[in-house]
Specification:
Blueprint (H helix, E strand, L loop, with lengths): L9 E5 L2 E4 L15 E2 L17 E5 L4 E5 L4 E6 L8 E6 L5 E6 L4 E6 L4 E7 L4 E8 L2 E6 L4 E6 L4 E7 L8 E4 L7 E6 L4 E6 L4 E7 L6 E7 L4 E6 L2 E6 L4 E6 L5 E3 L5 E5 L3 E6 L7 E6 L7 E6 L2 E7 L5 E6 L4 E7 L11 E2 L4 E3 L2 E6 L4 E6 L4 E7 L6 E5 L4
Antiparallel strand pairs: 1-2, 1-31, 3-10, 4-5, 4-36, 5-6, 7-8, 8-9, 9-10, 11-12, 12-13, 13-14, 15-16, 16-17, 17-18, 19-20, 20-21, 21-22, 23-24, 24-25, 25-26, 27-28, 28-29, 29-30, 32-33, 33-34, 34-35
Length: 400
């Protein structure tokens, strides 16, 4: 069955400026007070309640499939009440007991009880939700792009306890950067604002903005705890901010998604057909080198093997997942990951990739499958059938 491509799945760079296609149309804005409702009519099919550790959740329009990666197959499904849903970020709580996922069509966040394998609550939020963050055990911060606002959800009570106006213009696709080094502070980006916004996570308010220019917007972000520097994509460059002073101290001539290696020593930044790596331990963030990756690399996940660190990234312009030897700065393998949908006017597409316990997962929405890859062996385990349009996946670790 053919389904329309979701606008939030691609990023366009037009005329040197950053334009991000975000969430599709919302059928219902939901209840503005953000109250959660328990829904006993959402059940998993077999009623097993066997828990979810070591399973991946794949989110399709009419089903949420639970995948056993070692077997490469669906072992359970949640289907009742799910009809034409579209999803943003999916985030697992630190204890692994709950999975929160943005559902865009009704402007809500679904809360999944991972032990019971069922939807425990639906929390109303603002429209055009895409990204969600977990700055502490008690709260999920879900961003409404239509409002430029974070909806702060209590992870126990399943209700919105605060809203935070993060964008300057009351709208815009936004992200949140946070780290324990920041204490009670986070930084927000917004594609409509030429600034990184300072947000008080306790007082739930924007307290300042770090100006990066006069026009344009910010998008991707990263932080290196080894040098205390934050990195913000601003148009076609990356602004470097000292988090002690909140001052811009440098600028990198690259822009794209940013991914810190597990040892926190290198920062990989995704380009159109390459990944550039920078020294994340030095004050000057020196470039170490780059790796050419044909096919449009996107979300980068790392695996620490006995012989070094490897990066896995699923391409957007072909059906491959590329494997990068980070130490040698070279592509060492390609694995069939299945295909995604490609709007004709999209200049840069997005494809999700997540990992855990030695598995790499990436959805292939055009094929209706999720690729499960053994990261140690660098081999495909299976293209697991879910349904057309599956574009979001998240893994529940075996141990938490």
């Amino acid at each position: 069955m053919d389904r329309p491509v979701k606008r939030r799945r691609f990023v366009q760079v037009l005329g040197g400026g950053l334009t991000v296609g975000v969430a599709g149309c919302i059928g219902n804005d939901g209840d503005d007070d953000g109250e959660a409702d328990d829904h006993d009519d959402h059940d998993h099919d077999d009623g097993s309640g066997e828990g979810s550790q070591g399973l991946a959740y794949a989110f399709g329009p009419d089903t949420i499939a639970l995948i056993d990666p070692s077997a490469g197959e669906v072992v359970d499904e949640i289907t009742d009440g799910i009809d034409g849903y579209e999803y943003g970020d999916a985030v697992v709580t630190n204890d692994g007991s709950q999975l929160f996922v943005i559902e865009e069509t009704l402007g809500q966040v679904l809360v999944i009880d991972t032990e019971a394998r069922e939807i425990a609550a639906e929390v109303a939020m603002g429209p055009d939700g895409t990204h969600m963050y977990y700055p502490n055990d008690d709260e999920m911060w879900a961003h409404s792009d239509a409002e430029g606002t974070f909806y702060v959800i209590d992870t126990e009570e399943h209700e919105v306890v605060e809203t935070v106006d993060a964008g300057l213009e009351g709208e815009g696709h936004g992200k949140l950067l946070y780290h324990e080094d920041f204490g009670d502070v986070g930084y927000g980006t917004n594609i409509n604002d030429p600034a990184a916004h300072v947000i008080d996570l306790n007082e739930y308010e924007r307290t300042d903005s770090i100006e990066l220019g006069e026009e344009g917007g910010t998008h991707y972000k990263a932080y290196s705890p080894q040098n205390g520097l934050a990195y913000f994509e601003y148009e076609d460059v990356t602004a470097v901010v000292d988090t002690e002073t909140d001052e811009v101290v440098d600028e990198l001539d690259v822009a794209g998604g940013m991914y810190l290696t597990p040892d926190e020593e290198l920062l990989g930044i995704i380009g159109e057909d390459e990944i550039r790596f920078f020294d994340a331990t030095s004050e000057s963030t020196d470039e170490i080198g780059s790796v050419a990756v044909e096919g449009g690399p996107d979300a980068l996940e790392y695996y620490e093997a006995d012989d070094g660190i490897y990066g896995f990234t699923a391409n957007t312009m072909d059906s491959d997942a590329a494997v990068i030897d980070v130490d040698e700065l070279e592509e060492v393998d390609r694995i069939d990951a299945g295909d995604i949908e490609r709007p004709e006017d999209a200049q840069h597409l997005h494809r999700e990739g997540v990992s855990g316990d030695g598995y790499f997962f990436t959805p292939a929405e055009a094929d209706g499958t999720v690729a499960v890859i053994d990261m140690e062996a660098r081999e495909l385990i299976a293209h697991v059938p879910v349904e057309d349009g599956v574009a979001t996946v998240q893994y529940v670790p075996e141990s938490v």
